[in-house]
Write a structure and sequence with these properties.
The structure holds 2 protein chains of 2 kinds. Chain A is of the alpha/beta class. Chain A has 2 domains: 4-118 and 207-224, 3-Layer(aba) Sandwich (Peroxisomal Thiolase, Chain A, domain 1); 138-202 and 232-381, Thiolase/Chalcone synthase (Peroxisomal Thiolase, Chain A, domain 1, 3-Layer(aba) Sandwich), CATH 3.40.47. Helices cover 36% and strands 19% of the residues of chain A. Chain A has 13 helices and 12 strands. In chain A, α4 (85-98) crosses α13 (332-347) and α7 (158-172) crosses α10 (284-293). By secondary structure, chain B is mainly beta. Chain B has one domain (4-128): OB fold (Dihydrolipoamide Acetyltransferase, E2P) (Beta Barrel), CATH 2.40.50.840. Chain B is built from 2 helices and 8 strands; from the N terminus they run ααββββββββ. In chain B, β1 (18-22) and β2 form a beta hairpin. Classes of the chains: A alpha/beta, B mainly beta. Chain A binds chain B through residues 118, 120-121, 124-125, 128-138, 140-141, 144-146, 148-149, 152, 193-199, 241, 243-246, 250, and chain B through 1-2, 6, 10, 29-30, 36, 55-67, 70, 72-73, 75-77, 85-89, 100, 111, 121, 123, 125.
């Protein structure tokens, strides 16, 4: 297997992009990534999108995106794994480069979420349609049921849980691509409208339009394109049950643990080597459970640790320097690719005021559904 | 999301609570060819008695359009006495009485309508006992 590097990245601003279609957004991100890497022609590409069909009545993204990013003729593939689609696209591109099949491969993701009125029903397709969504449960509802058990089992308070979005919003202030780059107070969280008890609006990632893209190539060729490539040192992926009720422990996300272990093993690293991690904080409770499954904190302790500052600058590990899904925004299919872009910025010293100092290794964790799939990447500064 | 053909296929689970007990001990309400954990394909069919315990719950305040008219409503993950796990609405109760560990019984109820002229979809909800 060949070693693989990232040589260029590009993304749209995240937010309500009323003037841009799904093709506009992906083309913008892809062209920025190609310009960043200095490549005019790619060998192949992967586009992650959770549900372009339900959101925009547009499928066949391989053809559409090749056409609109000026790469007609190049092989492409639409990758779907719910909210882990973007991370899955990066992994697929990694495999294609590592295998020797292709040299210059674009990996990205996109979601156009603001064109539909009832987005709740689209997101519910990532759950078990016949045995969860049929009975009225929403995605916030599933994570609320995890939060309920976690809070009862470990004594996590509502105020401690609120510290996750408060921290992520604080980080987002320095991210020019973030959807909601402003700080929020404890009162803002506790007084926000109830979505699925105990989760309130400020516990939930927003509805976001956006796209993100990266260019991968063999590490041995990376210096042809850039002085500062980032190596993809470890990749781990795993699946879990489609329905939350089939998780044997409702406070655990087994797929995250498995994916993390596989990535650590490939990288030859452990949690103490990681300076920052972009995690899938689709809901506040998710960041807490994920931080435990990835080995940064003992089970039952991450919520209190984050509330005490262990998840920010100067703490044990900087969690979501970008602002995370909550504040940067969560265009579901783009999120996993955008997480890797944040790692690229951090590891090349391009993260501006949100730079994590002296970062050698960073991690990204992208998750589908209520833990039904998970992709973890470990990135290395060269 | 429901439509007539899908509804027809699911009738065994939505009308008579027929489940599978695999030789590993795993109990599944949805029909499966294989136990997702042990890989066993050997099972017996059992009918659930309909009683169980709440493992977790939430109160849904923002629902999809199909259920928006009934908010706020409780939804719970329950484990039946036979060991099957289900996600169901909890109905006919004061929402403050829904608790982890509460005993419930499954009752046959209308779940939704497929628009103005479609079929009515039924299934099970839980009541507190």
């Amino acid at each position: 297997m060949r070693e693989v590097a990232i040589i260029g990245v590009g993304m749209t601003k995240f937010g309500e992009l009323w003037e841009q279609s799904i093709r506009d957004m992906f083309a913008e991100a892809a062209l920025k990534a190609m310009d960043d890497a200095g490549v005019k022609k790619i060998d192949s590409f992967y586009v992650g999108a959770m549900s372009s069909g339900l959101y925009t009545y547009q499928e066949h993204l391989s053809s559409l995106m090749a056409d609109y990013m000026g790469q007609i003729g190049v092989p492409g593939l639409h990758v779907e794994s719910a909210c882990a689609s973007g991370g899955s696209a990066v992994r697929a591109a990694f495999i294609e480069v590592a295998s020797g099949m292709s040299d210059i491969v674009l990996a990205g993701g996109v979601e156009k979420m603001w064109d539909v009125e009832d987005g709740t029903i689209v997101l519910a397709t990532a759950s078990d349609q016949e045995y969860e969504a049929y009975n009225g449960v929403t995605f916030p509802g599933l994570y609320a049921m995890m939060a309920r058990v976690y809070m009862e089992k470990y004594g996590l308070t509502r105020e401690e849980l609120a510290q996750v979005p408060i921290k992520n919003h604080k980080h987002s202030v320095n991210n020019p691509n973030a959807q909601y780059p402003f700080e929020i107070s404890l009162n803002d969280v506790l007084k926000s409208s109830m979505v699925a008890d105990p989760l309130r609006l400020m516990d939930c990632s927003p509805i976001t339009d956006g796209a993100a893209a990266l260019i991968l190539c063999p590490l041995e060729r990376a210096k042809e394109f850039t002085n500062k490539p980032v190596k993809i040192r470890g990749v781990g992926a795993a699946t879990g049950p489609i329905a939350l009720h089939d998780h044997r422990d409702l406070t655990r996300l087994d797929a995250v643990k498995l994916a993390g272990e596989r990535a650590y093993r490939m990288a030859g690293l452990s949690p103490s080597d990681i300076s920052f991690v972009e995690v899938h904080d689709c809901f506040s409770i998710a960041e807490i459970i994920v931080a435990e499954e990835l080995g940064f904190f003992e089970y039952g302790t991450a919520g209190k640790a984050i509330a005490e500052g262990q998840g920010t600058y100067g703490g044990k590990v900087v969690i979501n320097p970008s602002g995370g899904l909550k504040a940067k925004g969560h265009p579901v299919g783009a999120t996993g690719a955008a997480q890797v872009i944040e790692a690229y910025y951090q590891l090349t010293g391009k993260a501006g005021a949100r730079q994590v100092p002296n970062a050698k290794f960073g991690m990204t964790q992208n998750m589908g559904g209520s833990g039904g799939s998970c992709i973890v990447h470990i990135l290395e500064a060269l | 999301m429901a439509d007539s053909a899908r509804y027809h296929r699911e009738k065994f689970h939505r009308y008579i609570l027929e489940a599978q007990k695999f030789d590993s001990g795993f109990v599944s309400l949805p029909n499966r060819y294989v136990d997702p954990y042990s890989g066993s394909r050997s099972y017996e069919k059992i009918n659930l008695k309909g009683t169980g315990t709440i493992l977790s719950y939430t109160i849904i305040h923002i629902a999809s359009d199909q259920f928006a008219h009934t908010t706020p409503f409780p939804v719970a993950i329950i484990e039946t006495d036979e060991g099957a796990r289900l996600t169901v609405m909890v109905t006919d109760c004061d929402i403050n009485d829904v608790k982890i560990g509460a005993r419930v019984e499954l009752v046959f109820r209308k779940i939704m309508e497929e628009g103005e002229s479609g079929i009515i979809n039924y299934g099970y909800k839980a009541i507190l006992i």
